[in-house]
Amino acid sequence: MNADTGTSTRHPVLVVGAGPAGLSAALALSAAGLPAVVLERRTEDTVRPGSRAAYLHGASLRELERLSPGLGHETAGRGLMWATKRSYWAGREIYVRTYPPATREGLPHFTSLPQVITEDLMATACRKQGVEFHWGVEVTSALSTPEGVLLTDSAGREWQADYVVAADGSRSVLRSAIGSPLEGPRSRNTFVVVDLDDDPEHHPMPIERVFHYRHPNVGGRNVLTVPFAGGWRVDLNLKADDDPERFVSPEGLRRWIPRILPEAYGERVRWVSTYRFAQQVAARFTDTHRRILLTGEASHLFAPFGARGMNSSIPDAVRAVEAIVRALEAGPDRAAAGAAIGRFAEERKDAATYNRACATTALDHMLARRPSLWLRERAAAAVASAGRRAGEWLDSAPYGPKLTARGAARGSY
Ligand SMILES: Cc1cc2nc3c(=O)[nH]c(=O)nc-3n(C[C@H](O)[C@H](O)[C@H](O)COP(=O)(O)OP(=O)(O)OC[C@H]3O[C@@H](n4cnc5c(N)ncnc54)[C@H](O)[C@@H]3O)c2cc1C
């Protein structure tokens, strides 16, 4: 089938969107022996700026390796790992920990690389596994019935499928089509996110993850600096009444970046953006007929601290495909098929709700608006150099709680 004859074939499954969630779904489909067909609005060569989901957890690497042998290792190899994490409070070091070099064979605990590289590696693996991509196809509507789904694209072509994996991102047309609004708040403060190029000839900064509370050189704002393959990501936490333009204009960047990093970095800005982070989860992860399954940012948006966005989009997609496989195996038994999709929807909504709670804990910690939290942070900072646990707490709290026992048992978010 090709894009000009959209209605001629009915597909068991269509995937809408070729971001991390859609690519994971495509890999999972082909690993399960099902044809994988992806409809993607952008063209194959569209430039996607920004490091975005730079931090890939070990659980994601293991999942990629399972879906496409070699992919987890290749992705880990293209990324960067830091051995040292460090925190400061108002110019004073309050915590540092350096891990010994890994001795075990196998996949690392994490890797750090621009999201676009991860996506390109996943797309290459997809092609090797025979995934069919239709680039430049924008889905504009979806009609779900007890028998299946009819999609229409912006050129008026129609696409039919038994099931659809909706991986069309934060402004998901499919989420709107099934009438499942995103629910939850948005942070009031603005965050400035900057990518800086590294210069391979000159590494003036050690490869460390650094969180600086109340940085004295930027008016007491919090600053997180994270290395990734090829560059540095800096998150600056603006105050509620700051004008973001003052920080993201070329002059603004040249003013504050050299105050927190070696001077050369003021001229190495590759990408800059501002965010008020949404903390939202879709009301339902599937439609009434249980034919369209929401995954990734089509179903949830989290503040990035703790790296739960892309890292949970991968298991979303994998579980969606597992549910679809069970539903297809159920054949004419509609109740069993519907139950399989229903379990997916509940399980992943639970996971998203938990992930949002973790991201909220991280965000609350950073903004420290509640007086009790503000006092606790100050008290911990005061004793941090003497008491290791206080420093450890301040060092880890900006990323929220770790996996739950249940999530860890399944190895995913
Ligand atoms: C500044 C920033 C920092 C982040 N940092 C992290 C981090 O450190 N760690 C982490 O895990 N996550 C992070 N995230 C989140 C991460 O980028 C997202 O979670 C991830 O991209 C979600 O993947 P997705 O596939 O669901 O959506 P997307 O990546 O948005 O992909 C959706 C795809 O669907 C396509 N599409 C959209 N509409 C249609 C349509 N109608 N028809 C056809 N195709 C369509 C789009 O073109 C796109 O290719 C960050 C995000 C931001 C913005």
How would you characterize the overall build of this protein?
The chain is of the alpha/beta class and 413 residues long. The protein has two domains: 3-81 and 102-185 and 279-362 and 405-410, FAD/NAD(P)-binding domain; 191-275. It is built from twelve helices and 19 strands. The strands form four sheets. Strands 1, 2, 7, 8, 9, 10 and 18 form a seven-stranded mixed sheet that branches. Strands 5-4-13-14-15-12-16 form a seven-stranded mixed sheet, with helices on one face. A three-stranded antiparallel sheet has the order 11-17-19. The longest helix has 34 residues, at 334-367. The radius of gyration is 22 Å and the shape is globular. Mean pLDDT is 92; it is low at 1-5. It binds flavin-adenine dinucleotide (FAD). Flavin-adenine dinucleotide is lined by residues 16-22, 39-42, 52-55, 115, 138-139, 167-169, 173, 193, 275, 296-297, 304, 307-311, 313.
A few lines on this structure:
The chain is α/β, with parallel strands linked by helices and 413 residues long.
Cα separation of the termini: 36 Å
Give the rounded overall mean pLDDT: 92
The dominant shape is globular
Task: Please give the largest β-sheet.
Answer: 7 strands, mixed
CATH H-tier superfamily of the largest domain: FAD/NAD(P)-binding domain
Please give the CATH architecture of the largest domain.
Answer: 3-Layer(bba) Sandwich
Radius of gyration: 22 Å
Number of domains: 2
Q: What helical percentage do the residues reach?
A: 25-40%
Q: Which blocks of ≥5 consecutive residues have pLDDT under 50?
A: 1-5
**Structural class, from helix and strand content?**
alpha/beta
Number of strands: 19
* Ligand inventory: flavin-adenine dinucleotide
* Number of helical regions: 12
The CATH topology assignment of the largest domain is FAD/NAD(P)-binding domain
Strand-residue fraction? 15-25%
Give the class-level CATH name of the largest domain.
Alpha Beta
